[in-house]
Amino acid sequence: MIELVVYDDYQTLSRQTAKYIAELVRKKPNTVLGLATGSTPLGLYQELVHLYNEKEIDFKDVLTFNLDEYVGLPKEHPQSYYYFMNQHLFSKVNIAKNNIHFPRGIFTDPKEACREYEKQLTEVDHIDLQILGIGSNGHIGFNEPAKRMTLDTHITDLAPRTIQDNARFFNDSNEVPRQAITMGIGSIMRAKTILLMAHKESKAEAIDAIFSGVVDPNLPASILQLHSNVLVLVNKEVANRLHYRPPTIMVNQ
Ligand code: PGA
Hints:
alpha/beta; binds 2-phosphoglycolic acid; eight-stranded parallel sheet; single chain; 19% strand
């Protein structure tokens, strides 16, 4: 089942998603969370830190797996995804260092780096709740548009549009790494629940692919149509630009 949930605004979307996660962690303290980086989940992480400070969520036994990392950026690099997660969530809550899982951006053997992450993912069997953003080209994680989808962790060339979209975080587009290591479509699809968040109108076209009835490797997010439990969480601005009208829940708050 794939449903669209429309929130009044980004803050409500972020707050409600954080509450959903807190509820899940209350029920299952060792929840396995799949986490995303980028501007979309920033509000969610702020709300999670707030709930943690209010003692509404305890990360002590939570395990996390991040979707992706730039190839060539060490953890300490301000644009690395590890740095992002540490800055916005990990350093602000009581998550155990050993419970944080990240694909390695620095390696000598790319195959070994992929195998290592895939092994860690296999050890937990599945992710309980996967948070996703979406690229304007339909990518999820760094599963970029391609002739076919890749199920396992892999190294990928970033699409020109992704490089362009992400240039805003760097001094100029030449500094954006050209490759990333990413969780594959298989691990994403094995997650019990998937929450895909989007609040920018520029994502509407990509989101349409999730409700189009067509699975297309050139629009990787379209594979989510085959998953049994996906919620697509958007604000009104995005919802108003969608061409398809899937089953919709309106949240006014
Ligand atoms: P954004 O990126 O959250 O910065 O818009 C999302 C993505 O590219 O997956």
